[in-house]
Write a structure and sequence with these properties.
CATH topology: Rossmann fold
Order of helices and strands: HHEHEHEHEHEHEE
CATH superfamily: Vaccinia Virus protein VP39
Largest sheet: 7 strands, mixed
Number of domains: 1
Bound molecules: S-adenosylmethionine
Strand order of the largest sheet: 3-2-1-4-5-7-6
Structural class: alpha/beta
Helix content: 40-55%
């Protein structure tokens, strides 16, 4: 399947994938960072992962808990010729990050991290992700404004989003003020993104 077909097919089925302008920001940040090792949280069908690999020479580790999506992503990576550069891990991302860090092989391993998984867990993952990010590396986060509910621009239809909205507010505030990060900014396009780089050691 061509990339445009992967995108159209995912949109048609309601599988959430990165939106247009956010996609362009991802590609721009990947080109700017020129990473060697990328970690993605939230694979879905591999659409953003393929874009990351197309626009860099990096290898990608990407985590997804839905086994059907994992199979589909593996098929898409293979068809796109990226089988050797993409490793899809079928796991819950919060436990997987703890597991990876415990193995000691992933400290400061990744020079680009794309966080695009369960929004309610972003704050639970940020410490681990910063530990895994190499000094000078970039972290890009999608969906932080959650359909405009976080800013109050759009009123949530039900009360059930209350917890996740509150958690995202805490996450955004923490991210923008993390002492380990620099040049942190909120990009208020589409579903909202955050980007920052990890300070190099001599900047501390
Ligand atoms: C927004 S989608 C990812 C889209 C993908 N990055 C793209 O743009 O092509 C978020 C993905 O995170 C996965 N996900 C949600 N909770 C998860 C968890 N606890 N562990 C791992 N993956 C999870 C969902 O199944 C979904 O496929």
């Amino acid at each position: 399947m061509e990339l445009v077909d992967i995108k159209n097919n995912a949109n048609h089925r309601g599988v959430p994938i990165i939106r247009e302008t956010s996609h362009d920001i991802l590609v721009k940040e990947i080109k700017k960072a020129n990473p060697q090792n990328v970690l993605e949280i939230g694979t879905a069908v591999g659409y953003s992962g393929i874009e990351i690999l197309k626009n860099s020479n990096a290898t990608l580790v990407t985590i997804e808990h839905n086994s059907e999506l994992v199979s589909e992503a593996n098929k898409n990576f293979k068809e796109a010729g990226f089988e050797k550069r993409a490793k899809v891990v079928c796991a819950d991302c919060v436990s997987e990050l703890a597991f990876m860090l415990a193995s000691d092989n992933y400290n400061e391993k990744f020079d680009f991290i794309f966080l695009d998984g369960p929004k309610a867990q972003y704050q639970n993952m940020i410490d681990s992700l910063i530990m895994m990010l190499a000094p000078g590396g970039t972290i890009l986060v999608d969906n932080v404004l959650f359909r405009g509910y976080v800013t109050g621009e759009v009123t949530p239809p039900t009360k059930r989003f209350k917890t996740i909205i509150a958690r995202l507010k805490v996450f955004i505030d923490d991210f923008l003020n993390r002492p380990e990060l620099e040049n942190a900014k909120l990009i208020s396009v589409e579903d909202g993104m955050l980007v920052a780089t990890k300070k190099r050691k001599n900047n501390n």
